[in-house]
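Retro notes (design track)

What went well: tokenization of the new backbones is finally stable.
What didn't: we kept losing track of which sequence belonged to which structure.
Fix going forward: every design gets posted as structure first, then sequence, in one message. First example under the new rule, 88 residues:
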């Protein structure tokens, strides 16, 4: 039985993780495009949605590091995927 339900918004987190990983935040902000468009243009975005892309490209430690980095940029009252990781 669940005691509480929390909403955890992840959009555009998956795309933004790639931007963080490639240290492209400055270029991303300069272009003022949507994360999905930016990732398609620079990283072959269609692959980024596939589980295989992430499991073949990044270790679990790298993914957790990207999630932690993203979480540090969120508002204090926002939950992110990293919130779920550190809860376990």
């Amino acid at each position: 039985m669940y005691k509480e339900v929390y909403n955890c918004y992840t959009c555009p987190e998956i795309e933004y993780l790639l931007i963080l990983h490639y240290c492209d935040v400055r270029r991303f902000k300069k272009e003022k495009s949507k994360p999905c468009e930016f990732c398609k243009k620079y990283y072959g975005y269609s692959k980024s949605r596939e589980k295989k892309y992430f499991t073949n490209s990044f270790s679990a430690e790298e993914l957790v590091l990207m999630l932690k980095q993203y979480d540090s940029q969120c508002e204090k009252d926002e939950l992110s995927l990293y919130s779920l990781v550190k809860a376990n």
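Added context from the reviewer: The first helix runs from residue 13 to 21.
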